[in-house]
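Q: Here's a chain of 406 amino acids. Please give me its 3D structure as tokens.
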Amino acid sequence: MEAYANTPFQQNQDIIQPVLENLSNFYRLWIKYVSCSGTYVITPINKQQCNFCRLIRNHPVGYQRCRETARRCVYLDPRRYHLFPCHAGLYVLAVPLQGERGPIGALATGEIRIDDGTVDTGKVLQKVADLGLNRERLSRYYEEVPVKKREEILLLGETLYAISNCFIRLGSAQAKVRQAEIEKALLESELRALSSQINPHFLFNALNTIQMFSYLEGARKTPDIINALSNLLRSRLGVNDLLTSLRDEMEAVNSLLFIQKTRFEDRLQVVIDIPDALLDARVPALSLQPLVENALIHGLEPYEGIGRLELQAEVRGRDLIFHVRDNGVGMTPEELAKITGRLNRKEIFEESGEIGMANVHKRCLALFGEGYGIRIKSEKNRGTEVTLRIPFTTGDGRRDEDFIGR
């Protein structure tokens, strides 16, 4: 199943599930929540899809057609409900769901037959004849499909539309509360920073002076190291937004790696696998630097052999996933459990000002909701892998549908 997006329906699944159960039982229909990609995300537990649809969905081509029908539900006019025929000739009732940034899914009924005296079984079966399915089974399963009067279905449409609006308003209210929590935490963070802030202009001017004198005195590597340090400090002191481009985040990561490779000399190998097409993606500011720094300090610095650090990015479904791997000292199960426990605490920010993994994880939860953030795998003397999952969005704040569809 694809990872959940941060929508009012997925945030409130424990409330929505029984509502869908009761409606499905009352109307004797399969009512589900469909994601933007056409995946059935929330479905009734005590009600199953009809055999006619299950048989068609078991065929690869049939499955793709059914999924396209589900996607169509999402991108219809969200100001009303819709009743339309699917690719197989049955009817679908759909309520598109619109969030603040665009479509977030749809409520849809399982396929139904309308009791209006116009159904021709032969014509319906002809629509799926190219799939090569057993015609006798299809015909038998078609007769099992629920038959409803049009007036009954339109009444259900009004009900689903009203329910969807209630949950969208609930999700919007929750988002405002979460935004207030983020802003409060940022204000507290800024207040702590004021007490120990170094004037950035003074710092960079001093570094530039040191860089110039080291160059004049013939130090070959020192100017490059100072330049990398300046870039790294600039990225940390100049954070004004919650999100930045992956391109900018990687510039800081590369500066950090340049400094550390100078320290490690021949003891460190670095492999970066990030496609150029992803560099415009939006990521939380200061999200990858702490993960790379943690791998270097805690994983590879105590390691006696040749250290290897890998940083990889990939798009999976509608999410952008980063992997930071090292072959260092790793962790015991007890050490891993302790860190995992810290990550799972519900506070939005740590009290300390340190920008660490727990801080990155909690910022992701605050920004994107459950299902996003950090996961850790580690074995003693075998290394560690830290995975960061965030929604895949580009500069305009929208998901990159073209890339996702590749």
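Q: Can you summarize the key feature?
A: The radius of gyration is 27 Å.
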